[in-house]
Amino acid sequence: MNLNSAPITLKFEGNKVSCSSCSLSQLCLPHGLDTQELETLDGIVHHKPQIERNTILFRSGSTLKGLYAVRSGSFKTYRSTSDGAEQITGFYFPGELLGLDGFGDNIHRCTAQALESSSVCALTIQDFENLCCKIGGLRRQLMHLIGTEINQDHETLMTLGQMRGEERLAAFLNNLSLRLEQRGFSASEFNLSMPRHDLANYLGLAVETLSRMFSRMQDEGILTANRRNIHILDWSKLRVLAHQDQGCGNNY
């Protein structure tokens, strides 16, 4: 599917997935729910087995129809500027929610697109609203996730506004490694699912500048970068450069 294709239509009557048995449940909506509440949630959450790379999940300006938890793969979100250019606003990985941007007036403010072959768990807004009336823990978890989104926006603004280019890249890599580690992946060696032009766009850098940043970090012994494969060699140097000596916050 090309970049200008219409959003996919998720069939919510599809395969059900057990939230109680999902390895990502502690990072997602089910966190903090008791056994009975999990069973209730299990009954209405549905799984979209495969979403191909570049597929649009939802588009800016479209009506909010559901919440989507990333089950595998990764997504980017972006908004279009007045001249039609793309401004990337975030990257999302397994256990993270897409669709919260539409909660204000039921209209999505950004477009969500798969960076690779991915899958999501889907929950219709009607089902979600009904559940929130019955399950207090779900409301609390949603408030927590919305708070995390707000903190993410604040961290991003601070990073782009106050840090030099190399510091922005270091902060992003430090944060990404933490998020991957929380999901059971290696924190030291991983592949970037986003192409460099997307990462450069997100960090407010030219692609050539980003490439120079990676080369400089390699020369300084901080990491090795082979195409999209990143291997962190010196955590101390990386965190000092990112101004996050004690680790970093969540969700760049």
CATH architecture of the largest domain: Sandwich
Q: How do the strands of the widest beta sheet line up side by side? A: 1-8-3-6
**Roughly how many Å apart are the termini?**
27 Å
- Compute the average pLDDT: 83
For the biggest sheet, the summary is: 4 strands, antiparallel
Low-confidence stretches: 246-252
CATH class of the largest domain: Mainly Beta
How many domain regions?
2
- Dominant shape: globular
CATH topology of the largest domain: Jelly Rolls
Helix content: 25-40%
Count all strands and give the number: 11
Strand content: 15-25%
Individual helix count: 7
CATH superfamily of the largest domain: Jelly Rolls
Order of helices and strands: HEEEEEEEEHHHEHHEEH
Characterize the structure shown.
The protein has helices at residues 35-42, 125-134, 136-162, 165-182, 196-203, 207-219, 235-241, and strands at residues 46-51, 56-58, 66-72, 75-80, 86-92, 97-98, 111-114, 118-124, 189-191, 223-226, 229-232. With 252 residues, the chain is of the alpha+beta class. The chain has 2 domains: 19-156, Jelly Rolls (Sandwich), CATH 2.60.120.10; 163-241, Winged helix-like DNA-binding domain superfamily/Winged helix DNA-binding domain (Arc Repressor Mutant, subunit A, Orthogonal Bundle). α2 (125-134) packs across α3.
